[in-house]
Amino acid sequence: MLRRALPHPLLTLILTIVWMMLVNKVTLGHLFLGVVLGVVIPGLTAPYWPNRPKLGRPLKMAEYATIVLWDIIRANVTVARIVLFKPVVDIHSQWVALPLDLTSPEAITALAGTITMTPGTVSATLSSDGGALLIHCLHNDDPDAVCREIKHRYERRLKEIFE
Amino acid sequence: MYQSPGLLAEIVISLFLVIGGLFGLVGAIGLLKLKDTMQRLHAPTKATTLGVGGCLIGSMLYYLLIDGRVSFHELLIALFLFLTAPITANFIAKTWMTANLRKEDLPPSGRPHGWAIYDDPPGGDPRD
Amino acid sequence: MITYALIFAMACYGFGLLATLWKLVTGPQAADRIMALDTMVINFIALMVLYGVWQGTPIYFEASMLIAMVGFVSTVAFCRFVLRGNIIE
Q1: Does domain A58-162 have CATH number 3.30.70?
Q2: How much is the ipTM here?
């Protein structure tokens, strides 16, 4: 019964919080409207989200978010240095294939997004069976080092969070 | 326009605004300078995200320290941009790859199946 | 001091807008033009937020949020159109 009424409790919570942030003031009326939206929208869109993604370990998630934010800042400085001070002919871009240990679609999506936001790498496509990720490196001479860093830094943590 | 909020607050706000502006500038320079489309993709997705992030933090601090009210809209805008930037980058990369690269230009996937933009998934609907 | 920082940042993003306009006109392929448009939207959001601080009014945040959403959807729609030939299948 509760599962029918609230197919995605986490989504309900997030929608309510986002509504409060959009309104930008806390009153009882807006809280009520936010909760109504948070219940109605997941209920109406439930057929499109058949399974509930498993999420655990909020502490690990906070740790992961902090690491990613820090890496975004580092990535910006790295890319800015390459863009500003390296002659164009010296920039060695290359494609790297990263074999994946993750299997759940949500985890792979999170990893691809993280790779795009962090130092000098953009995730381009997935192998058609979902087992490898194609990455473009802005400036890199050692593909194995990139794979090792991504596996050690992000994939291990995502595996703990999602699986 | 505004009364002086104390020197330290002004310095911090100005610092965030200048950092934001600088990274926006880096994104623009990267867009003009780099020669390959995939290389150019790196500059805007990264530099402009932090650039806009810096501006938004500066603006948030401005409203917090000078007007004395908390504004969550900047946080929402920053969150939205951080969530959508990888998706647009991925789409643009795919658009460019289907038009310009052949299967042989990419490294092997190391799996029994090739990359998804050239090969159909095993046993699935070929439209996916 | 905030005024000067604002002027500096706005000048940077103004230059960014010009650069994206240049890429939009010259970019050799469709993917470059889509990228230029996407970057233009992001630059414009930053410019709008800065203008809001300049004017001391929070009214521009709602506008920039809407532009962020419409810009994202339009980029994805453009890419899908180039990739598949139609937007909604």
Answers
A1: yes
A2: 0.84
